User: What shape does this take?
Amino acid sequence: MLLLMALPAALSGCGASGAGQADGPASPAPPAPSTTPWFLYASGSATPSPGLPRGSGSPSPALPPVSFLALNPECGHSYSPMSEVLIPLTVTPGKGTLGVTWPRQYNSGYRLTAVKQPLVNGNQPNYTWQNVAAGTGCTVSATISGLKSGTPYVVWLDAPNTGHERDGTRHLYSGRSGVVRPL
Assistant: This one.
């Protein structure tokens, strides 16, 4: 305990006791603790945010129509995409069939299937894919047959060989219809 009390005196050296000092000016005393806060707050008044007045707004911009460069200049097809990956499908119900049409792009081959929508307990049935060649026209058409009349289906389209842009993103490579029912 005595050692701890002597420690501050030993660390302060000769200057603390005044020994060894010439008749010069005395060292300044440490400043008194300040009672002012470290942070100063100034009162003020609220300023309204710049911008549109409340109750008015600007409408969301609509997606612009997109034109894809077709292999044949006469095949220009414009539509607003649902997302960056979906190829638009037109589905026409027939008796136990669904006729499907979509714009041809990039000389890709396609796969097409109709997926039943009612819930099934346990494992879902495997999908039967139908291969469809790209053809030479502006659109590609195929018919899915052997379907149950009145049953709800969703048509899926896959274009596995559409290629990529220079930045690495894929060209449109899939499509999906809404719920459709064969007659």
Notes: Residues 66-71 have pLDDT under 50 and may be disordered. Residues 66-180 form a domain with the Immunoglobulin-like fold (CATH 2.60.40.10). Residues 114 and 155 are 4 Å apart (CA to CA).
